[in-house]
């Protein structure tokens, strides 16, 4: 079931985000992700429309939209590769005619995932905080 997140769930969502980020980005230090956790909980998630995915009465993933920009899409690493991320994106795409997102270029799995959903790379930049290249991807109906 996909539904709006509650404020009380944000600590759990940040835990999912942290574990999934560390797994998906071995080229970025664990300390970097840990340093961003409070910002994610207190500033980034509250500024977005956050939807959670429940399975068996347990929140296993979420997506966070800021207007037409996908700020976050994360699934608990324990249950990745079962289509949950695709389900969250299908829900987000049904409610938008255009979506953009930034993804680290070296995260080949994520770039491939978004390409399969119809996203294309439209720009690239170097992230000043990590020195890693990021790709701006866009999708439109």
Topology (SSEs and partners):
Blueprint: E1 2-4, H1 10-24, H2 30-44, E2 49-55, E3 58-66, E4 69-75, H3 84-94, E5 98-104, H4 108-116, E6 120-126, E7 133-140
Parallel strand pairs: 4-5
Antiparallel strand pairs: 1-2, 2-3, 3-4, 5-7, 6-7
Pfam family, one: Acetyltransf_7
Domain N-acetyltransferase: 1-141
GO molecular function: acyltransferase activity, transferring groups other than amino-acyl groups
The CATH class designation is Alpha Beta
**DSSP strand count:** 7
Q: In angstroms, what separates the terminal alpha carbons? A: 24 Å
**Biggest sheet, in brief?**
7 strands, mixed
**Which whole number gives the mean pLDDT?**
94
Strand content: 25-35%
What is the overall silhouette?
Answer: globular
Domains, number: 1
Can you tell me the CATH superfamily?
Answer: Gcn5-related N-acetyltransferase (GNAT)
The strand line-up of the biggest sheet is: 1-2-3-4-5-7-6
User: What's the number of helices?
Assistant: 4
CATH topology: Aminopeptidase
GO molecular function: acyltransferase activity, transferring groups other than amino-acyl groups
Protein name: Putative acetyltransferase
Pfam families: Acetyltransf_7
Domain N-acetyltransferase: 1-141
């Amino acid at each position: 079931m996909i539904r709006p997140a509650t404020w009380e769930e944000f600590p759990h969502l940040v835990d999912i985000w942290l574990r999934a980020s560390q797994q998906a980005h071995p080229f970025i230090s664990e300390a970097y992700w840990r340093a961003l956790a409070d910002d994610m909980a207190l500033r980034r998630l509250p500024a977005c429309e956050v939807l959670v995915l429940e399975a068996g009465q347990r929140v296993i993933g979420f997506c966070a939209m800021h207007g037409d920009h996908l700020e976050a899409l994360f699934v608990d690493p324990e249950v990745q590769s079962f289509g949950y991320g695709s389900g969250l994106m299908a829900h987000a795409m049904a409610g938008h005619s255009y979506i953009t997102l930034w993804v680290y270029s070296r995260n080949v799995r994520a770039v491939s995932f978004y390409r399969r959903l119809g996203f294309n790379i439209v720009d690239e930049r170097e992230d000043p905080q990590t020195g890693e290249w990021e790709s701006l991807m866009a999708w439109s109906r």
